[in-house]
Amino acid sequence: MTTPTRTHVTGGIGTSVRRPDGVPKVTGNFAYASDLHSKDMLWGATLRSPHAHARLISLDTGPALAMTGVRAVLTQDDVPGLPLFGQEEQDQPVLCDGVARYWGEPVAIVAADDEETAQRAAASIIAEWEPLAPLDDPEKAADDGSLFRELKIRRGDKEAAGTVVVEGVYETASQDQAPLGTEAGFAIPDGSGGLDLYVTSQWVHVDHRQIIACLDMEPDQIRCHPAGIGGAFGAREDISLHIHVAMLSLATGRPVKMEYDRSESFVGHVKRHPSKMWYRHEADADGNLVKVTARLLLDGGAYAHTSRAVLANAAFFTVGPYRCDNVVVDAQVVKTNNPPCGAMRGFGAVQACFGYESQMDRLAEELGVDPLDLRRQNAMRGGDPLATSGQVIDAPLPTVEVIDALEAIPLPEPLASDDPRLLPGGTGLTTPASKVVRGVGYAVGLKNVAFSEGFDDYAEARVVLTRAGVEVHTAAMEVGQGLVTVCQQIARTVLGIENVAVVWDDTSHIGSAGSTSASRQTQMTGGAVHAASVGLRDRILADFGGDELRNDGVYRAGERIATIDEICAEGPVEHLVRFRHPETHPPDENGQGDVHAGFVVAAHRAVVDVDPELGLVRVVRVDTAQDVGKALNPQAITGQLEGGIMQGVGLAVMEELVVDHGVIRNPTFTDYLIPTFLDAPAVETRIIEAPDPWGPFGAKGIGESPTISSTPAVVAAIRAATGKALTRAPVRPQDIVGI
Amino acid sequence: MEFVAAHDLDEALAAKAEQPDAELLAGGTDLMVEVNLVHHRPKQVVSLRRIGELREVSSTRIGAGVTWSRLERGDHRGLAEAARTVGSPQIRAAGTIGGNVGTASPAGDGLPWIAAADAAIEVRSKARGTRVVPWRDFFVGVKRTSLERDEIITAVVVPDDIPEAQEFAKVGARNAMVISTVSCLVMRGDDGFRIALGSVAPTPIRATAAEGMLNAEAKITEAALDEVARVVSEEVRPITDHRSTEAYRRHAAGVLARRLVERSLR
Ligand SMILES: Cc1cc2nc3c(=O)[nH]c(=O)nc-3n(C[C@H](O)[C@H](O)[C@H](O)COP(=O)(O)OP(=O)(O)OC[C@H]3O[C@@H](n4cnc5c(N)ncnc54)[C@H](O)[C@@H]3O)c2cc1C
């Protein structure tokens, strides 16, 4: 992109401008979806299956209907339209269709005058179940052919063989996104049979498509509005309570609010796929990768959601950012009676990275070489083909640069303190400094940006110049990541006008922005805002014969020739763009083809202090170097890199949904542990800028990479400290102790 | 739901006498979790928060209403160390030792200290007045105590000769704000060592075999320390659940006991 950077506009790209929603969020004035209310509203509640797999023999809603204050009790029979929903494949019943296929599956919904009554009414519904054996073993599901998708990759010579061989089996647990804001929705009847729906979402248009199908409504009858979101990380990519709250509102003709509490949230949204991965790496005596063979098995749970795309990501990143000419991958995502899985930050790339980076360390050990040197030696760069799909990377890929930059960050001083807060076990006072062993580990990760495999991926944005300033209209969800600031910065820089506001439109007033996921919005909606701003600016300049737009009007050769009021004499001027990234293609039968639109690479180094005897770990620091294309907002990037590392650390040492016969045993923050302040490592970040060919100003999406290689880096560091193989994430104390 | 904010103990005892099913509310950090999580709906709640008598502390008597944030700064070293590990500053400001005893969770962090101190639980009812129940008789099972329905816990009564050398440690699955997987409290006095453990049995327990073995030693050698770890691992009765495994809990109980005995010797 050749658009010049205007130097006279403040708050443009490359600066760490404050986000407009920052102060309201910190001071409690921001309206999250859960804050929405109206005087005459009802509360919704959900009855859920107590079984992971069971036949519903009878359902008696009578007791609920008999309660004072209950306004509606609805079941699957009351779904007006298509009884199924799903983003890729419509396979999940809106409400139980006679068989519950996972623990916590919604069975009936209630609207009542207050929250307490709604919940008591839902609990009073009498459901008679015939429990069935849950299919909870993914390997058995694979044997039974219970699959959402299978993907085979065959590249190069299947007879190829290396002289140095390492094999390993790796597992990762299911992780919850654990966003602070739980699922919430608010539906308001519009008086003419339709609804305005305010929902926590990552993609209102794809929600809208599913909602209108299930409600049997015309597109304009239901308007989905983005509501304030307290975190998403993939959990909001799929429908949760959206259709339910709409049904209750239509049935009662009243505004209805639904909000999950923390425990319901744990069963109410999709999670990260647990995985098992069998790997074989073969190298020549000099350490060049010759062949990678792998089998990947992901557990998709009961319904499809985005499992197909997650599997593709895992499969295409089986080898990571390394060159290898001969690759065999058999990847499957199975259908079971475990909790449904879907999107979570890193989307399949997380699992694979744990596998291939564990393997790279073992290979380095086997070869007797430095693990970073082995990675540099095999590093994929721009112009190289992706080891799996063969797609040639037609952009710079600074794999070696991120490794070098990471290595240059000084290592911390040795542990020299008895302050328990700096020791494994923390204030539990378990561990004297004398029992601590330090370890250092590295990992490098690769991730695609935006949607792949031929998906028609676009984002719409409308940029409007009014007398009062510029408006950027979009339906792209701001989930806390800072897209709002980036949109403002891009528009300011292109238009030369500082006063830019982002306006979120509902589904009837603007086209889809696509999902706030896949690290895509800075490139996609950012790209749309950039293109719309360029279009608007060029038209205004052409209309007035100017050569520059500024805060106060059009200029030619440094002289103002028209004011903003004059530009808007006949009303606001606007430009609408539907932005697409370069076309991608579905893979062929061997998994070959140009399946991805762009790539980001990152590297992490973890330093851990371990008490091997008790198996306790303190993650001392995790440093990172990451390619960001172009740093549009350096502080926002630092925020993403640090936050992503915390989620990666969580998966490395504590975050795990414990699922037993399909039942989640720890659906609370008492038992599903995420890192606290004391568990959070220090972080130093290095930003590498290798411009993207189509991102605005060369920017790349950066949201997921921090979570991908941080987990294997931490586990590698624990291995270095303990000498244990540690093939499973998270590493539990008993894994380190070895019992 | 009826709510009584008792101003003094007599008022609370009267309310309990009238409504033995009323739930007592101290800091609410266990009770309110139960209300929210399992939608427990007590008909009547008697709040003890305004009762000054319950907040009194001396070296031999800790009022039931004393919060963790006070115990954290208190004179009993082991109890202070345990208090420091409870929840977060907010939880410690609200949560009380009486609530910890009332909940009687195997993971209650105040309980190993009570066991090691051979403390007793002082309880009172309107009908029968005060009784003092030795800790072993008070904790009878997982979240089960011998408290009668009309009784209120008034204090933890501490013998005046407990050792000053006290060491606490707690293993959890993260480094702060965590439920214990295993906790241990060791006291060393003139009469020898006392070892108490939490989260390894339905109630807090004393590792009597390890204590006996250790107290028979003339000198605490490395071999004796190893033996403590082994004996403690054997005598605890932990379970496997979603938080940890039986094997790990056995192992960690032994390691903690060994380390704390060592620490108490320094
Ligand atoms: C986020 C969080 C973290 C926590 N972390 C820890 C931890 O690390 N370690 C730990 O041990 N605990 C922890 N807890 C549990 C809890 O904080 C403690 O058990 C605390 O001591 C309970 O005291 P409370 O005053 O809040 O009790 P409440 O909740 O008020 O009462 C608890 C129970 O005891 C009964 N009760 C209270 N007072 C009396 C009395 N005087 N007589 C008779 N019955 C009584 C109540 O009726 C109720 O059944 C945590 C809780 C939360 C929410």
Task: Describe this entry's structure for a reader.
The complex is a heterodimer of chains A (739) and B (266). In chain A, helix 12 runs parallel beside helix 13 (521-544). In chain A, the strands form eight sheets. Chain A has a seven-stranded mixed beta sheet with strand order 3-7-1-14-11-12-13. Chain A is α+β, with helices and mostly antiparallel strands and 739 residues long. Chain A is globular. Chain A contains 18 helices and 31 strands. The model of chain A has no long low-confidence stretch (mean pLDDT 97). Among the domains of chain A are: 22-30 and 458-580, Aldehyde Oxidoreductase, domain 4 (2-Layer Sandwich); 402-451 and 596-739, Aldehyde Oxidoreductase, domain 4. With 266 residues, chain B is of the alpha+beta class. Chain B has two domains: 2-103 and 120-157, Uridine Diphospho-n-acetylenolpyruvylglucosamine Reductase, domain 3; 166-265, Enolase-like, domain 1, CATH 3.30.390.50. Chain B contains eleven helices and 14 strands. Chain B has helices spanning 9-18, 31-37, 68-71, 77-85, 89-94, 97-103, 111-116, 135-138, 208-215, 222-235, 246-265, and strands at 2-5, 23-25, 44-47, 57-58, 61-63, 120-125, 129-134, 139-141, 144-145, 152-157, 165-171, 182-189, 192-198, 205-206. In chain B, the strands form four sheets. In chain B, strands 4-5-10-6-7 form a five-stranded antiparallel beta sheet. A four-stranded antiparallel beta sheet of chain B has the order 11-12-13-14. In chain B, a hairpin with a 2-residue loop joins strand 8 (139-141) and strand 9 (144-145). In chain B, helix 9 (208-215) runs antiparallel to helix 10 (222-235) and helix 10 packs antiparallel against helix 11. Classes of the chains: A alpha+beta (739), B alpha+beta (266). Chain A binds chain B through residues 119-120, 123, 261, 263, 421, 424-430, 432, 613-616, 618, 653-654, 658, 660, 665-666, 668, 670-671, 673, 675-679, 732-734, 737, 739, and chain B through 33, 36-37, 39, 81, 84-85, 167-181, 241-245, 247-248, 251-252, 255-256, 259, 263. Flavin-adenine dinucleotide (FAD) binds at residues 23-31, 33, 48, 64, 85-87, 91, 94-96, 98-100, 102-103, 108-109, 152-153 of chain B.
